[in-house]
Amino acid sequence: MIVARILAAKGREVVTTQPHRTLAEAAALLTARKIGAAVVTDGQGRILGMLSERDICIAVGEDGAAALDDAISKHMTTEVLTAFEDETVEQTMAKMTHRRCRHLPVVEDGRLAGIVSIGDVVKFRLEQLEHEHQAMREYIATA
User: Structurally, how many domains does the chain consist of?
Assistant: First the structure.
């Protein structure tokens, strides 16, 4: 299974924010959308970074509540790991595990095409395994 199938099932909407917004605005956005991360983009939609709940917690833990007035650009992750639509779910899981990240923007032809979370990847992998187990049970039952 490839990442494009995950996006086909879940949709391609990506919540983005701008680097000049404050951490307080970002926290409100994440809360309102019930998500764990947003992609930080410039005016042309290019990926500049990622901001996650973890980034906000680290900022507040280090700098106190005053960090909520800081620009997102001060605390975002700038080395953004991405996935491609034709990548396998296994490749994507390996990337996420290696870098210990829970969200990967999906890029196709240099453009943001979607986002996958570790939950999305695990869900689709479990469904794939269940289909394989069901096929094996049916094979055994008919043998």
Answer: 1
> 67: domain range?
3-142
Q: Is 72 exposed, middle or buried (0-12, 13-18, 19+ CB in 10 A)?
A: buried
CA distance 102 to 82: 11
Q: Residue 68: name the closest of 14, 115, 30 by CA.
A: 30
Query: Could you say which DSSP state residue 65 is in?
Result: G
Confirm if 51 and 76 have CB atoms less than 8 A apart.
yes
pTM for the structure as a whole: 0.85
CATH number at residue 45: 3.10.580.10
76-96: per-residue pLDDT in tens? 999 999 999 999 999 999 999
